[in-house]
Amino acid sequence: MELDGAGSRKGKPHHIPNPGQGAGLMNVAWNTMDLGILNRNLLLLLYCSLPQICTQLCRTPCFCSWIPPRCPPGVPIIVDGCGCCRICARQVGESCDRLYLCDESKELLCDYPTSTGRGTCNYNYDGGCEYDGKEYEDGEVFQPNCKFQCKCLDGGVTCTPLCSENVLLASPECPSPRRVQVPGRCCPEWICDEEQQSPVSNSLGKETSIVLQGGSRVKPLACTDWSTQWSACSVSCGLGVSLRVSNRNLLCRLETQVRLCIVRPCRNSPDMSSTEPPALPPSILSTG
After folding, report:
1. What is the rounded CA–CA span in Å between residue 267 and residue 102?
2. What's the topology of domain 51-124?
3. Model-level pTM?
4. Which ranges of the chain have pLDDT less than 70?
5. Residue-level pLDDT at 76
6. Nearest-angstrom CA–CA distance, 143 and 146
């Protein structure tokens, strides 16, 4: 410490704050405090926007009915969005919000189309499909096996058969046709057992031959017999006709075969010998 000429102490000058400057520092402090409060309010608002937490939606303490909810069959009882009371899970098409939740066991989500805070329970899918444990994209065409071709569309699967759905009708030569799975082939085929064939069809045998143009003789083709059952008689009484499709011919080609049939005599026609047979449709040949 030093003394000046007057004997006074000489030291560092004292700093006297400016009143205006102090007010500025105070304003900065208040502004900083306001910004902190604003940030805290924003965080609180964001925190309250989460489900099961917002105090405006969830009451504390919980006020729940002592009677358990009675839900329709198949609708589970879950805890509401506040984690407070038991409610029935909302199903497809029902309204939902942060409190009334959708059935998650059925993969339902609350779809909010607007900002009203209420939505509708819908399935949570992206248009894809699941078939036989495999996932397929929307619009994808796939073949799960050799018998069907399927397509995934809007979460659903539609399939079309690849095998023919023809029907083999019973006939005297094949009274009990059956469809079997032939080894090495995908689609099942109709067959007639050998012991069910008539002696007439068996007598046609392998020794029969046909004469083609030019006089050459050829033996019938070796093929698997294929025949439908005979159709019902064309009339309920009197003489009628019955049809079937078969490849039992020398060319082993499918053709429409016709036979006469009678269910019972008609009351107004006691003499069946005078009844003229109906006109028979011509046989229609098609390549087998």
Report:
1. 71
2. Omega-AgatoxinV (4.10.40)
3. 0.30
4. 1-57, 125-126, 193-222, 267-288
5. 94
6. 7
Check residue 55 and give its pLDDT. Answer: 45
The first and second tokens of residue 228, run together, are 């439908």
Right CATH for 129-161 from 2.10.70, 3.40.30, 3.30.360, 3.30.70:
2.10.70
Q: Where are the domains of the chain?
A: 51-124, 129-161, 164-197+219-269+276-288
Amino acid present at 130:
E
Provide the pLDDT for residue 74.
Answer: 92
CA pair distance 96, 48, nearest whole angstrom: 18
Sequence-separated (6 or more) residues with CB below 8 Å from residue 246: 171, 173, 225, 226, 227, 228, 254, 255, 257
- Note the pLDDT of residue 193: 65
Bond from prior residue into 277 cis (ω within 30 degrees of 0) = no
